[in-house]
From TrEMBL:
Record organism: Mycobacteroides franklinii
Keyword Transmembrane helix: yes
Pfam families: DUF4190 (PF13828), Septum_form (PF13845)
Keywords for this protein: Membrane, Transmembrane, Transmembrane helix
Stretch list, region Disordered: 1-88
Boundaries of every DUF4190 domain copy: 98-154
Name of the featured protein: DUF4190 domain-containing protein
Residue ranges crossing the lipid bilayer per the database entry: 98-124, 136-161
Amino acid sequence: MTQPPSGPPPSDPGQPEFPQYPSPPNPGYPPVAPPAGGYPPIPPAGPAGGEPYPPYPQVNPAGYPPPPGYPPPPASPYGYPTPGSYPPIETAQSTNGLAITSLIFGIIPCCNGIPALIFGIIGLNQTKRTGQKGRGLAIAGIVLGCIWLVVSVAVAIGLAIKDQPKRDESGHLTQSGDMDVTKLRVGDCIADLGEKSYYTTTKAIPCAQPHKAEVYAVVPLSGSSLPSQSVLDQKGNDECGAELETYAPNAFDDDAVQITYLYPTKRSWAQGDRAIACVATFTTERTASIKGK
């Protein structure tokens, strides 16, 4: 027997001085060989149950949760609006001038209330379109204008009725007034014909009142159209001359009596005027009829 040496065993020059560990295996799966005999390929590996892997949760890169959002500022306890919620500033609106004018004309009686109506209607339309103030003023002006117009019409009708001449049962005038010349009758006296060449109305009065003309005949005209001027003049001269001898035999001897006549115009003919009115005029006023004298 030999005794082992006291020192370390001599190193083997063919082996390393330190122990060596085996290298780790190559990661990954070995390639899959194609199936033999027509078998289907092996499905890829996955979790049990055939369900896909759930996605990984998103993690903040820094590892900290995100900061919470800030809540909106609380409402002010004193009633002040929150920022950005102030109401729009309203500008003062002017009053429509025509509405004011309408009210003025409605208060002051002018032109039978017609200006108040006109300005009120225009002003009311303008306030609707522009949003101006004065709608009530315009309405008040229109109402007042209507009142003045109705009052004016009523007064005019009343005056017209009052000025109408009146007759008694026998047809003689008992009250003077303006009369349409187409309604003159034999025996009607006229205040004064004047020197006009065209008449529509004249003032008829009782013959007992001072007057300067008197109707003594009404000569009818025939035909469907207005006769010519020459025919009217000839008929007026011939007929009125003969009628005066019958109505007042002594009138031809009175130099203060003259003959004239009123004949139809185109307008009066279209309205039904079909007669010539023979009129005796006087140079001075008379207070009695010339009939029979």
